[in-house]
Design brief:
The complex is a heterodimer of chains A (665) and B (89). Chain A is α/β, with parallel strands linked by helices. In chain A, 56% of the residues lie in helices and 10% in strands. In chain A, strands 1, 2, 3, 4, 5, 6, 7 and 9 form an 8-stranded mixed sheet that branches. In chain A, a hairpin with a 3-residue loop joins β11 and β12. In chain A, 49% of the residues are buried. Chain B has a 6-stranded antiparallel sheet. Chain B starts with 15 loop residues before the first strand and ends with a strand. Classes of the chains: A alpha/beta (665), B alpha+beta (89). At the A-B interface, α3, α7, α8, α13 and β13 of A face α1 and β5 of B.
């Protein structure tokens, strides 16, 4: 607690209040209702458990509200439980020991929710029970005697309807009332004889059963009918799997089709911006840096924001409705064959958007070895950063072609890349779980929460927070790489290129054939630049994969972040303002690119080889940094980098050389 | 913990079976929870304690895991975990 001086000069205490509750108990909704927009999201020191705090106006004073991670118990078997316990006993420096704990209890799932509450009683901090979902509970025609329950628990109980605001003031009053009281522990929970853990659990549930029996009248068998009926279809032995496949297909289809328009708009916007920069800035190195380096590089990546927002939107909705838990239920058998936990499904699914939130989501997996195995294979899921690469290659070499006359070859290839990633992930997972991460199959004990309509606000917030990570990356890592790359290609200046050659004169509309105008000068400049020398140096290694030194330059750059490939190729082929992956100019530049001996550089087989490389390679500094933080060691990220990149080289080699043997070139 | 995790319910019971053997749609009363310490503890924390009523709802498409209803909510668990729970019908 801290003491602050109010305007009148009297000292008032600022309370610290912790919000604890089971997953799906309505904790987040209540937290949002109490704090409004007044929230701060950070991480607990040293771990990636999210630390959400906010200001709660409690009548005269304010309280610092801490949203603890959702938990079932405080026995510290998972990272979340450990952190929650540390906060409650005041072991976390960044937040003070709470003065009051608000136990969020789902009225429709009273007994199991109260289990955590009975544990909270034992920490000597006053507890106020906030009974959520009371509207749903009453709609199911159950009755609850709140006063009686409160008397049984020996703690204040307030019925809350978070959305409508019912009970919010009463909750504030109770928190202020108990803040200075010494809490009493019900005698049933306070047995003097030392007991084993399981005896304690047994005693807690007996206490709860008695309390609930006294205070609740259940309307028999009416509850959960809706969820059960939905599950008759959604977890049906046959239709359940069919629907799961259909859901995933719909999500991916929507991501591609709905995002087209905003992506086109963004692309035009960045084009206009680059033009504007050239008009405003004097011709020369600065204008080149801004237009060709910064705007081309960062813009080329930010164009994918609509796709990423959509993907996160769908994941949030699937998560909040309760469907993701069903997906884990349906797929657990397959996952356990590999040796993974059904819970690994969510992190792996999230990794289709981005491995970073996916890897962060693995902390729900309790066993360390299972968790690490999931982390190590998560980056094989084709993330959104690979999309630009796939789209560019397909657009350049496979567009408009059909399989069986009606399925687009591009869609088939896209599906093949996703499937390749998943297959390799499962194989690697299988091997890891039998070698360096050997462990018995992990237990699978998971709640299937009732289906609920997702809260618009929670879904929106989820989407924005995760998308912000991506934007931040574009503004930092990718910005820095773009500048460095641009400089590596711009310097040292070759003789005869004192005039800015990567310049404005070749605006693509007026010059439909890029690479024709100043191409001699430009290619000479690139060849002699630092980047060109680096590309030449690695060319012998990547030649067997079908790549020349220019692709080598782009490849090196893309080890920082995959999507950098597109912006680098744009800079290399000097496409100028239309730096986007779908731009005709980049596509035609790639198609028409010739190597030093005049041979065509890119063939469909080269494109395929490059795509396979991108499916398998570990080309993301941010992911490596997260893995370092999550595993708390450098050896895991280094191992990950080495084995993935080795596999990528092998995969691309097999693709290219195999293809040539089959005469595909 | 280990072996002393076994806690017996209040009542004297006749025929007991493993939870996984409970037919679909049938109710059972938990008699004991034993086996590996962490699994038994988690199950009990989730409300599967001796004396609790459980109903077998269904099994997943490939026969595993199982969905049971306990204390008014749905819980999924593998047959392997379910084998540490004994119920009487």
């Amino acid at each position: 607690m801290s003491t602050i001086l109010t305007k009148t000069g009297t000292a008032t205490r600022r309370l610290t209040v912790a919000l604890a509750g089971n997953p799906n108990a309505g904790k987040t909704t209540l937290f949002n209702a109490l704090t409004g927009l007044n929230q701060k999201v950070a991480n607990y020191p040293g771990v990636t458990v999210e630390r959400k705090t906010g200001m709660w106006h409690l009548g005269a004073s304010d309280a610092l509200l801490i949203d603890l991670p959702g938990l079932y118990s405080l026995d510290a078997t998972s990272l979340d439980e450990q952190i929650a316990r540390d906060v409650i006993i005041g072991k976390v420096d960044s937040v003070g020991r709470p003065d009051v704990i608000v136990a969020v209890v789902d009225a429709t799932n009273l007994e199991r929710n109260l289990y955590l509450t009975t544990q909270l009683f034992e920490y000597g901090v006053p507890v106020v029970v906030a009974l959520t979902m009371i509207d749903v509970f009453e709609k199911q025609k159950h009755e609850i005697d709140v006063a009686k329950l409160s008397a049984m628990l020996q703690a204040p109980v307030v019925a809350i309807n978070a959305k409508g605001g019912r009970g919010r003031n009463a909750l504030a009053d109770k928190v202020l009332e108990v803040a200075d009281q010494k809490p009493s522990i019900p005698s049933e929970l306070n047995g003097s004889a030392p007991k084993s853990t399981n005896e304690k659990i047994f005693a807690r549930y007996n206490f709860i059963s008695d309390a609930v029996q006294e205070s609740v009248r259940h309307n028999d068998k009416e509850s959960h009918r809706v969820s059960e009926r939905i599950d008759r279809v959604l977890t049906h032995k046959f239709f359940g799997l069919l629907i799961l496949v259909a859901v995933l297909l719909t999500v991916f289809q929507a991501i591609f089709s709905w995002a087209t328009l905003p992506m086109d708009l963004l692309e035009q916007g960045f084009g206009t911006l680059a033009d504007a920069a050239r008009t405003v800035l004097p011709e020369g190195i600065l204008a080149d840096l801004v237009a060709d380096g910064i705007i081309a590089g960062v813009g080329g990546v930010l164009v994918f924001l609509p796709q990423i927002l959509l993907l996160f939107l769908f994941i949030s909705i699937l998560e909040d409705t309760g469907y993701l838990a069903r997906a884990a239920f349906l797929l657990d058998k397959l996952m356990s064959r590999v040796g993974l936990h059904g819970k690994a499904f969510l992190p792996l699914m999230s990794s289709f958007a981005c491995a970073i939130p996916g890897i962060m989501a693995t902390r729900t997996i309790e066993n360390r070895r299972d968790r690490f195995a999931t982390i190590l294979i998560a980056p094989f899921m084709s993330c959104s950063a690979r999309l630009p690469v796939y789209t560019l290659m397909i657009g350049a070499f496979f567009a408009g072609q059909k399989v069986f006359g009606f399925i687009s070859l591009g869609a088939v290839l896209m599906l093949a890349m996703y499937t390749l990633g998943i297959t390799v992930a499962l194989i690697v997972g299988f091997i890891l779980k039998r070698t360096i991460l050997k462990a018995p199959p992990p237990p699978f004990i998971m709640e299937l929460p009732p289906y609920r309509l997702p809260s618009v606000r929670t879904v929106f917030q989820n989407m924005v927070t995760r998308a912000w990570l991506f934007v931040k990356r574009a503004g930092t890592v990718i910005l820095a790489i773009s500048i460095v790359l641009w400089a590596l290609m711009y310097f040292p200046r070759s003789a005869g290129s004192e005039f800015p050659v990567t310049g404005s004169q070749s605006v693509s509309q007026t010059n439909p054939e890029p690479g024709t105008g100043n191409s001699e000068l430009e290619s000479q400049q690139l060849r002699n630049s630092f980047a060109g020398k680096l590309g030449h140096a690695i060319e012998p290694v990547i030649r067997p994969l079908g790549f020349d030194w220019k692709i080598g330059v782009a490849l090196i750059a893309s080890f920082a972040a995959r999507e950098v490939l597109v912006s680098t190729l744009s800079i290399i082929y000097n496409v100028g303002k239309d730096e986007n992956e779908q731009s005709e100019t980049l596509i035609s530049a790639i198609r028409n690119a010739k190597d030093d001996s005049g041979r065509t550089v890119w063939t469909p087989l080269t494109a395929l080889s490059l795509m396979v490389f991108f499916v398998l390679a570990m080309q993301c500094m941010s992911t490596l940094a997260i893995v370092r933080r999550e595993t708390n060691s450098w050896s895991w990220p280094l191992f990950m980098f080495a084995y993935m990149t080795g596999l990528a080289y092998l995969g691309a080699l097999l693709t290219y050389q195999g293809g040539r043997l089959l005469g595909l070139e | 913990m280990g072996n002393n995790t076994q806690i017996t319910g209040k009542e004297e019971l006749t025929a007991t079976v493993e939870l996984a053997a409970l037919p679909k749609g049938a109710d059972g009363r938990v008699v004991s929870v034993h086996g590996d310490g962490a699994v038994a503890r988690r199950l009990m924390e989730m409300g599967v304690v001796p004396g609790a009523t459980v109903r077998m709802v269904k099994s997943a498409p490939f026969g595993d895991p199982l969905e049971i209803r306990v204390r008014g909510y749905s819980l999924a668990l593998r047959k392997n975990e379910a084998s540490s729970v004994e119920v009487c019908i």
